[in-house]
User: Fold this.
Amino acid sequence: MIPRYQKILFAILLIASLGMGFKLWQLRDRAHKRLLTGESSAPTAAPVVTPAEQATLVAADDMDNSLVSQVHTLPLPADPGSRARAILGRLLDLYAAPRATHPVPGGAASVAQVFLLPVPDAKNKTGQLAVVDLTGTFAASHPSGLETESLTVLSICATLHANLPAVTEVRFLVDGQPRPTLAGHADLTRTYLTSDVISTEGTRQ
Assistant:
């Protein structure tokens, strides 16, 4: 004979098990319906819209080895480092485009990162050092030659200063590491002064 209290306990456990099973089935059914209708329990974040602004690109021209200022409108983030990267990306997109005045493959993806660091200048004012990290793919595919490499480097320096006047010095890395030259000629071990670049710039509108 099974004691009465054990029968009652068994009945209670059975009812509880059935109730929990029913509840789990309801939850699973609701989740399945939400999945089918595309509902999400997480709040939907509003997309971040980057406003379009004007930027000055100092582009190289191989016809006369000059640097030419061009005004472009493009989305620019507020963060200065990201802003610099976006502007240089557009500059390198120009070089990668068909019939470019300074043909260099790679485009915007060639700029891995731009870091801005404070540095004192000669007049004891605080300027900025821009560290431009290029990709190894860009360096490997860049046309070799002193003039073409120098134009690329100088156009990057001039473009940075044109849009971020506080940038007084520029250094280059490739894949996050120092590199002797860009493609065998242009020196990447030195610090470039934007004042020197500006003084030699043949600007045309």
User: Anything to note?
Assistant: Strands lie at 52-61, 66-75, 111-120, 126-134, 167-174, 192-193. Residues 56 and 163 are 6 Å apart (CA to CA).
